[in-house]
Amino acid sequence: MIVLLTLLFTGGATFAQTFSMEDDGKWEIGANTHRGARFPKLHPDGRVWFQFEAPPTAQSVKLHIATEEYDMQKDADGLWNVVIPKTKPGGQIYTFNIDGVHFRDPASLPFYTGGITSELEYPAPDDEYYLRRKDVPRGDVREHYFYSEVEQKFRRAFVYTPAEYEKNVNKRYPVLYLQHGAGESESEWVHAGLMNIILDNLIADGKAVPMIVVMNNDFVYRPGEVPGRMDLAPDWAGNYKDMLFNESIPDIEKYYRTIPDAQHRAMAGLSLGGMLTNQVGLENTDMFAYYGLFSGGLAGDPKTAHGGVMADAEAFNKKVKLIFQSCGSLERPEGMLANIEELKAHGINAVGYVSPDTPHRWMTWRRSFYHFAPLLFK
Amino acid sequence: MIVLLTLLFTGGATFAQTFSMEDDGKWEIGANTHRGARFPKLHPDGRVWFQFEAPPTAQSVKLHIATEEYDMQKDADGLWNVVIPKTKPGGQIYTFNIDGVHFRDPASLPFYTGGITSELEYPAPDDEYYLRRKDVPRGDVREHYFYSEVEQKFRRAFVYTPAEYEKNVNKRYPVLYLQHGAGESESEWVHAGLMNIILDNLIADGKAVPMIVVMNNDFVYRPGEVPGRMDLAPDWAGNYKDMLFNESIPDIEKYYRTIPDAQHRAMAGLSLGGMLTNQVGLENTDMFAYYGLFSGGLAGDPKTAHGGVMADAEAFNKKVKLIFQSCGSLERPEGMLANIEELKAHGINAVGYVSPDTPHRWMTWRRSFYHFAPLLFK
User: Fold this and answer.
1) Nearest to A141 among B36, B115, B142 (CB)
2) What are the tens digits of pLDDT across the range B119-143?
3) Which of A112, A118, A309, B325 is the most exposed place for a label (fewest CB within 10 A)?
4) Looking at the complex, does the CB of residue A146 fall below 8 Å from at least one CB of chain B?
């Protein structure tokens, strides 16, 4: 590696270094880049090399990734570069900050977090469960449209159907309704969460039963409503409930070969989607028998929460088979785990999971899904 | 409408106007914007209002859309704006040029043309065939993965299955293999071309037979090959043929309920995808019975082209039922139409179509698909 440090006088009357680096032939293009992209590159030693073309008038360009910020430097071609020693494992959102305004990396495939973002897939020591394996039959993820009377327009859901769904044409399947987080869209459980790969692998290994997974967009607006704080409509949970119960579920049960009863329906979500699961799902235990709250909401005091539906544990357990709660270890899991103990002590089948060393990001939720899905419909 | 023109002295020692505009309440957010986006907006009178946040150091920002270029002006908040009188109908790629470097609009949903782009959906007088109708059953578009030995990695295809595919679980379907253009990806026949909406509508109206449509990515690289000119591998058509014939078609015929013979396979594509149809498809008439070349390639001289396979029209017609060629009227259609006449005179079922007043862009190919699909498998 050779780094040339050159002082030069720029038009903006500032001094800067010129970035230069010898490619030792070991750098490989990142997984989420599109065809023809040359950066970001990953080195086997863990470093990541970013390159970005900013306008020639740019005075300062910084890379923001995970919780880190790095100054970038111009190279001889006027492109801005930085090599970082490492970053957090899993999918990491990053942006380039040009003089205070953030831009996505045009080299990245599009992800949706607070708008269309760029994301680097960084290796993780425990990545095997979300990598595609040649020996595993692959389910399809479908872009599925249905008309919403609540919104007065067509909505798109992503729907996963397991590989065997195509062959067992007379078999019917249970359904998991899976919600995303604030700032995201119906695409992200697949594109950032890799739920389809995880579930394909679990099914192939006999660890999860084949199921359909329906991913709606959390955000539902009635005509005239505009996105408010956090993009939410005034009655965001009520709107979602009307869309889910009156439109999405009936549509799914008409279109796909589902087992259309509560014992074969689950509801789960991350962050805002966990809150929806809490406020829409656990308030309606005639609809779902399995619940997953990932980094979002708690089932609450079993004696009083949700209008006291859990108070009679025996009656509750006839309907609800599982309450799963999870978060990252960096999300202060104590309250979540204490609630799990309360629920268990009350006689409810509650399972808590803490993702080691992860924050409120996708690595927590990939792992949560991996630990949650095997508990469903058994 | 009030436009304030104010001369002011900027840091860059240039004179500029301050953009200001009164919103008359009739502006509506464009169709391809994501949740929470406020621009671009369309006015019923045809105008489009773009707004963009450039770095504060930007000296000049321009909008590029279709073949037009417009200067943008800063408003009092430092945001760059322009209102354009109109643009071309259909999906129009646009970028913001900051001091010579192009950026996509973060307000736009992502499209893929020469990388991740922004696209404005502008109203067209003949748009009915590509709008979703409430009375029309909707097919799904699936993200479908299969392992490629040619590339030594997993590939994604988009696969359309018609709505009735879910109900008629013992019925088998013909398959159209549909290729995209240079600079695009396997997603664009759906996201920019709206082929799923067009085909849903055609099937519901009894104009097209229900079929499966498989959209692969045109670009196939063997290990070690890097994208060259136009992103192409050295033997791009040969690589594609090996992927399509040895991997994609067998995979599709194993995974889906297809009718696995040449009389129930079609191949078509736009631009580069038309060239692939020409070089891979028409060179192998044992594989497909229907061909569509949209703005890309010509079947050629019926006496000599493709090793003389068309020379004996009677023998050829036993295998091949249709050669469809199309382009926009602004693409110099004379050569294409002359070739259609040659083919017809030779006794081959050839159909030519010219899209009125359109260039080498999606409006030509949406219309081409609309005119081509009803001719298949009948």
Assistant:
1) B142
2) 999 999 999 999 999 999 999 999 9
3) A309
4) yes
Nearest CB among A55, A104, A115 relative to B98 is that of: A55
The nearest CA of chain A is from the CA of B146 a distance in Å of 8
| CA of B232 vs chain A CAs: smallest distance (Å) | 10
ipTM here: 0.94
Percent of all residues in chain B with a pLDDT value above 70, rounded to a whole number = 96
Are A139 and B140 contacting, i.e. CB atoms less than 8 angstroms apart?
Answer: no
Beta bridge partners, A148, equal A153
Does residue B70 sit at the A interface (CB-CB below 8 Å)? no
Residues of B in contact with A53 (CB under 8 A): 101
Q: Do A53 and B231 touch (CB under 8 A)?
A: no
Listed by number, the residues of chain B in 100-129 with a beta carbon closer than 8 Å to a beta carbon of chain A are 100-101, 103-104, 106-110, 112, 115-116
- Chain B residue with minimum CA distance to A107: B115
What share of chain A in percent tops pLDDT 70?
96
What is the rounded CA–CA span in Å between residue B179 and residue B196? Answer: 14
The DSSP symbol for A185 reads: -
